[in-house]
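Report of the visiting student (M.T.), summer placement. My assignment was to run the structure pipeline on a short list of targets and document each run. The first record concerns MFS transporter.
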Amino acid sequence: MLAAAAAVGHHRAMGGTWRRAYSVAVLVTLAALDNVVIGLLPPLYTPWSAALGVGEAALGVTTAATYLVTAASAVGWGYLGDAWRRRPLLLVGTVGWTLGALGTAAAPSFGAFVAAQLLTALGLGAVSVVGFSVVSDLVSPRRRGLVLALWGLSQGAGLLAGTLLGGLLGARQPRLPFLVLAVVGVVAAAAYLGTREVPRGGAEPELAPLFRDGAGYPYRLRRGDLGVLWARRTNRWLILQGLTAQAALGSFVWLPRLLQSRAQEQGIDTPTAIMVGSVLAALLQLGGVLSVCGGWLGDRVARRRPGGRALVAGVAVLAAVPLYVVLFLLPLRVPVPAGADAGAVLRAVLGGVLTSPTVAAAVLLGLCAAGLTAANSPNWFALIAEVNPPEHRGTVFGLGNLVNGAGRAGGTALAAGVFRAVAAAVPPPASYAVGLAACQLMFVPTGLMFLRAARSSPADIAATAELLRERAAAAR
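After the run finished, the structure tokens were exported:
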């Protein structure tokens, strides 16, 4: 983290460097906590279904709805962040999802539960899009892929932590994980009060003369700029690829359910099977930590080839598809005794990596597949920052999030539909396995769109850099 912070900005005084390091640390932590919230509910569909008196499908629809609300609100938050001060918006978003988590923990009915989840989604929309805009202004282009990989990695780590926290703490007490997270959210909001207001464009080398002279970057988003955003070809590919990428990723909310079903097939009781599914799901997605490698590789290739970031992302996503298909169809058998506590489940699953060939093969496939798809996010983040001037980045990110949310919600619903269709021929867990494997084919058009962005991004990057140089020269 400190190494990443040392690479940002043009202010080198010790006080300024450490203040920026603190700001980066808090933003990364907030990004992680956001995704802890997202990961809590899917492993707990079974106990929440019983507690609220609704079917699991209703909870899946609720999850899809939160994705849509987060994505739709991100467009508005992004516009506000590009036009106004961003620090208060981040604080409001953090308080919003904290209140939503607390409301979920206390929900007496399904209606109250849905309302709390939607409030959480509104807060998450602010933190995701405005947080990205701030981080991109803290990071120099030379290290942007690496540092944004850390930011993206924190989100992946948060999602895994949410899956684990939900399954281990909530298998018998489904409200407890949300209460714990609400307390953590209060601490995070307090920590954010110590961050600084980051100047727009503060890390752009073309604008360095302005900041050295004590001036600022005065440009803000205007309504007429929206057409300009869409006119950049790379923006179109970066936004549209999220529809299919997130459709594939949206199906992953059912991964704990697949693994739970496999455990139940072995005769394991439901609470223990929920814990097994959560731990295995987190283990199979650990390859997300390799997003740092994808960001680093994108930085390296981009120095030699302007379209290198999109090329790295496109090739990696396409290579992951067959690995995911094999992973989901692979049978798993974990030797976990019925009625085991959380510690026993952890030991059994981790021990299975050494003693069970199918578990070892699944972990290896998951590590490679998740590592390849993880190259998508840091290079996507960095490309948005490089093909757009500072006052446009939050809005483009918000539009991308809108499409991402639609894709993820669609993927969640698509997977559920495939499960039902396949179940007519084969029962669970085979129906879950076939459905998840089929959904991964949505990554193919994603990879192809990144390859198109590899062709268009060099001209867009050069045009943005020239625009910033002209603005800096005109202001001096």
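The chain has 21 helices and no strands. Residues 11-197+223-475 form a domain with the Growth Hormone; Chain: A; fold (CATH 1.20.1250.20). I thank the supervising group for their guidance throughout the placement.
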